[in-house]
Amino acid sequence: MPRGLFEPTVMFCGMTNSPATFQAMMDGIFADLLLEGCLVIYIDDILIYSTDYSEHRQHTQLVLQRLKESDLFLKPEKCFFDVSEVDFLGFILRPGQIGMAEDKVSAVLIWPKIDSVKALQCFLGFANFY
Predict the structure, then answer these.
(1) Per UniProt, what is one Pfam family of this protein (predicted)?
(2) CATH says 1-82 is which class?
(3) What residues does 48 pair with on adjacent strands?
(4) Which end of the chain has a smaller Cβ tally under 10 Å, C or N?
(5) Residues 75-87: pLDDT tens digits?
């Protein structure tokens, strides 16, 4: 077994502070863009929004540049670029509109009859997220 000091190259899953640590790191990397109001970050989900296409291209290039400078990478199969509608954290975002994702609406519509306090708590936990 190798000996010495090791530095992780990815965030450990399952550690109590991992989400908060990662969020703080992302907030630090993109602080100016977050203050400018063209970016929303939730853990590893990044949403870039702009008023026009030209501005959007600039914001996207800035985000990609910052990711590269910070040795962070994207999974291309999880990325959507230059779209006017996106599912972000269970919400469908369109210009001037915010709606719930269809699968979330369907889950509420087919929810089984609530017949206990525990079942009610489960439903309220789901519903309160939205």
Answers:
(1) RVT_1
(2) alpha beta
(3) 39
(4) N
(5) 999 999 989 899 9
Summarised one tens digit per residue, pLDDT across range 15-35 is 888 899 999 999 999 999 999
100 φ, ψ to 5°? Answer: -85, 145
∠ CA 36-38-40, rounded to 5°: 110
Whole-prediction pTM: 0.76
CA dist 122 and 38 (Å) reads 35
- Cβ atoms of 74 and 91 within 8 Å: the answer is no
Asked whether residue 13 carries a pLDDT value surpassing 90, the answer given is: no
Q: What is the mean pLDDT of residues 88-93?
A: 90
As a whole number of Å, the end-to-end CA separation of the chain is 48
Burial class of residue 29 (count of CB atoms within 10 Å of its CB; 0-12, 13-18, 19+): middle
Alpha-carbon distance of 95 to 56, in angstroms, equals: 13
Provide the angle, in degrees to the nearest 10, between the axes of the packed helices 102-109 and 117-129: 160
What's the mean pLDDT when you consider all of the chain? 90
